[in-house]
TrEMBL record:
Matching InterPro entries: ATP-dep_Glu-Cys_Ligase-2, CP_ATPgrasp_2, UCP005522
Name listed for the protein in its UniProt record: Putative circularly permuted ATP-grasp superfamily protein
Sequence segments annotated as region (Disordered): 469-497
Region forming the signal peptide: none
Ranges of residues in domain Circularly permuted ATP-grasp type: 82-459
Pfam family, one: CP_ATPgrasp_2
Origin species: Roseococcus suduntuyensis
Alphabetical list of SUPFAM superfamilies matching this protein: Glutathione synthetase ATP-binding domain-like
Length: 497
């Protein structure tokens, strides 16, 4: 180790894969976009960026960050340069995503049922039944249709032309799909001619697919037109815009806990025309706050008696309570084994190698290599409680070493991946920035639906690997080409915006 590194200087990361390609050999999927960037004056790009910001401000596309002072409502940064995937790339991803979510649902059914994977020793029982997200209230009960995580968000990263990894699974209340839809709408308004040059797989069917998924979860007695609502914690939730957006797109009501009540194990919604029976609740409230009789008694956000109505089979909750054991970062390393155990298939998407700090050997390795690893809270989210070793100072690494020693079960660690980069409009022009991708996977008992693409999140700060909007990241429109252009062609020809 050099003297500068020993004093805490950041370590260099491996060279990242550039999805655009090199100037002399632009990747075929990006050919038209590269030509457009080459021929569009920087002032025009900046004008379009300002127009996009004005559009987002008028529509009110915001997210909330509390506890940092100032105005908590912020515009989510939107980059006007799209991220492009070839159809063949998406088809491989889609097959892997479907496989993974099917295995996660099978695991949830087993964990709250016969627990065969625990008895077989594939996953340590303590990681499941001792997990704070494990809900004994869900044991020996099967949700309508046998589906637990109806809406999943699977975070993917890319490190090479054919190298995609699952970074984490979001099986509880994944957010961000409204930004995916609004990003496409913004691009259609800003650059209609550029989009016309591409045959893009559409994303606007997602609300229809979501409503179909939710209706499929309804109890049998509900008939062909069940009443669906979105249960929100309220206007102070960071994703409140999304709750209202999806309710409007699906034509359903967005409700708070006080708008619902339970009578004789049946859920009703208060309306001006009197009580109306509710069949499906797309809940955007954490388990702890769903029902003060079943979980936290001090919750003012939930509905007293909701779990009793759910277990009686009179209402569906999407996603089911207890899904948190499927997206815990300490469970994540075992998903490939789940796929083999339940589906008898080899995983189509790879995991990032992961070290569980509660294991003595793993912990020793992590403590010896903190300058090379990313350390995360096993149940953290939003980019908080995380340390990127190569970018951390010696003091920060020492702090995390102390945390790991004090509470090893709370932490996992992974190698620092060189996330792929895509062209992004920055203060000094177009430059590469690191990205990830969150596709949204919808599951019923009969099928899995995935809208092509998903939410691309981009780390707007130079060199940063943190893409979360609460940590300075932004979003991009994700284009999946409906046809695969031939590789090897350099960008050429004028493209009007």
């Amino acid at each position: 180790m050099s003297q500068s590194q020993s004093q805490g200087a950041p370590r260099p990361l491996p060279v990242a894969f550039d999805e655009l390609g090199q100037r002399a050999e632009v990747r075929a999927a990006y050919a038209a976009v590269a030509a457009w960037l080459e021929r569009t004056p920087p002032a025009e790009l900046e004008a379009k960026r300002a127009e996009a910001e004005l559009l987002f401000r008028r529509v009110g596309i915001t997210f909330a960050v509390y506890g940092e002072g100032g105005d908590p409502e912020r515009l989510i940064p939107f980059d006007i340069i799209p991220r492009v995937l070839a159809r063949s790339e998406w088809d491989r991803l889609s097959a892997g995503l479907s496989q993974r979510v099917r295995a996660l649902n099978a695991f949830l059914a087993d964990a709250y049922g016969k627990q065969e994977i625990l008895k077989a020793g594939v996953i340590p029982a303590s990681l499941v039944t001792g997990n704070e997200q494990f809900r004994p209230e869900m044991q020996d009960f099967q949700p309508p249709g046998g589906v637990y995580t109806h809406i999943a968000g699977i975070d993917l990263v890319r490190t090479g032309p054919d190298q995609f990894y699952v970074l984490e699974d979001n099986a509880r209340t994944p957010s961000g799909v409204s930004y995916m839809l609004e990003n496409r709408e913004a691009m259609l308004r800003l650059f209609p001619r550029l989009l016309a040059r591409h045959r893009l797989a559409p994303v606007n069917r997602y609300p229809e697919d979501l409503l179909t998924t939710l209706k499929a979860a309804a109890p049998d007695r509900a008939g062909p037109n069940p009443t669906v609502v979105i249960l929100t914690p309220g206007a102070f939730n960071s994703a409140y815009y999304e709750h209202c957006f999806l309710a409007d797109e699906m034509g359903v009501e967005v409700v708070e806990g006080a708008d619902l009540f339970v009578d004789e194990n049946v859920v009703f919604m208060r309306t001006t025309a009197g009580p109306r029976r509710v069949d499906v609740i797309y809940r955007r409230i954490d388990d702890d706050y769903l029902d003060p009789r079943a979980f936290r008694p001090d919750s003012m956000l939930g509905v007293p008696g909701l779990m009793a109505a759910y277990r009686a089979g009179n209402v569906a909750l999407c996603n089911a309570p207890g899904c948190g054991i499927a997206d815990d970062k300490a469970i994540y390393p075992f998903v490939p084994q789940m796929i083999r155990f339940y589906l008898d298939e080899e995983p189509k998407l790879a995991n990032v190698p992961t070290y569980l700090c509660e294991r003595e050997a793993d912990r020793a390795y992590v403590l010896d290599n903190l300058d090379q690893l990313v350390v995360k809270l096993a149940q953290g989210s939003g980019g908080y409680g995380m340390m990127i070793g190569p970018h951390a100072t010696a003091a920060e690494r020492a702090d995390f070493a102390a945390r790991i020693k004090a509470r090893p079960a709370d932490y996992i660690a992974q190698p620092t991946l060189a996330l792929s980069t895509v062209p992004t409009l920055c203060a000094n022009g177009v430059a590469p920035r690191h990205v990830d991708l969150r596709p949204f996977v919808l599951s019923t008992k009969d099928e899995v639906r995935i809208v092509p693409g998903g939410l691309t999140r981009v780390a707007l700060r130079e060199g940063s690997l943190v893409v979360n909007s609460s940590q300075g990241g932004g979003t991009k429109d994700t284009w999946v080409l409906d046809n695969d252009p031939q590789e090897g062609g350099a960008a050429h020809g004028a493209v009007a915006c």
